[in-house]
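Researcher: Let's try something more involved. This one mixes different molecule types, so please make sure each is placed in the same coordinate frame as the others.
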Amino acid sequence: MGATAKKTDTQKKPRTAPPEVRRAQLIDATITCISKCGISGTTLTGVTKEAGLSLGLVNFHFKSKDALLTETLNTLAAEHRDLWMKAVQREDLSAADKLTAIIEAQFHPSICSRKKLAVWFAFFGEAGHRKSYRENSSQFDIERQEICAGLCRQIIAEGDYASPDADGISMTLEAMFDGFWLNMLMYPSKFTGKAAVKQVRIYLATLFPCHFNA
Amino acid sequence: MGATAKKTDTQKKPRTAPPEVRRAQLIDATITCISKCGISGTTLTGVTKEAGLSLGLVNFHFKSKDALLTETLNTLAAEHRDLWMKAVQREDLSAADKLTAIIEAQFHPSICSRKKLAVWFAFFGEAGHRKSYRENSSQFDIERQEICAGLCRQIIAEGDYASPDADGISMTLEAMFDGFWLNMLMYPSKFTGKAAVKQVRIYLATLFPCHFNA
DNA sequence: CAATTGACTGAATAAGCATTCAATGGAATT
DNA sequence: AATTCCATTGAATGCTTATTCAGTCAATTG
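Model: All components are placed in one shared frame. Result:
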């Protein structure tokens, strides 16, 4: 339905666009395709049809199908990292606030829509044998887990809590992040992002009652 | 290596075997192939080569490749269910003991070898769009979660604990199960089954200190 | 022993796929 | 206007794959 931005000469969409735009379009279409058909069901014909572009464009803007898939995953991973990193870098937030921000980023609607979750797990399913799928995103995971462990250590020191096991707690947090993601994908009616955040906060409130409340 | 059961005439392996045996061989080979190459890299040529059988046998013993994959997943799901169900059905165990048994089953080496984890997540990755992959195993997941919730309710009643949210706890347990599985697959050197059991027990010990200890 | 049955084989088939590339389009530059 | 350059197109190519099936083999039955 008509989107006429400038009356002057915007009537027909241009037949050509800068590579950046095309790459973004193709990555978007790839996300849609993977979420609908899985990685094994995602074909270049399908992706380009979804994007409304012609078949040959993928190999023009990307080296190969594999490069398109890898860059799709990297895009999702970077988008996620940007969101929580923004909060972690703020100087005015307490350790508990930063940890809360990481949790909320994990379950933010823009990060874990059903569509994107399907893509994440499609990649996890292939990650076992595809090194390129692990490289980037696992680096981010490790980075986030180490930051979480550091924040936990700080909170433990602040509150003088009994449990000294910041590494164990951050491991468990990581597991809860991924586990709730999977359950949100498989049983969306039973598991929502809101409920996940709530449960993670209950876990933290049990451990650090002075810093968190359910 | 020699396995000579009966001296009389067992020298060469028979060229033919009952369908049950062949089906099991093919499912085994499928697990190996998926763990090595993912679902998209698993071909009938590869499976039959792995099994040391001829190409045509898959479509003889199974309706199709898809049927083979579905039955492979169902086999894994049933194997897992059998393990925890055996403990849950015992009349002599307390609720806490049964919950412990479920946790230990979840991370039992026979259930979550790296090989089998790779297969589980390969299926999760495709489950979004393949109804047949969800049907059986998700039924088992729901069943297990409801049993866990019941056990939690019982424990809460026994210990007169403050937290009344058995459903939330069982949701969190489920998430920890899946999340630790994923982390065991992705970072096997950092995450082991033993460590996972320990962390889950710590979680329960925090909630139910009279029933569990870390 | 002959006949029958069920398991097994692997070459042949047909469909689908990623990738290539010669040709086209059109915007920017000369 | 002519030229250059880059984005774009989609038919053609060559490879991989699931599935079929006509035939082989061996055990069991009559």
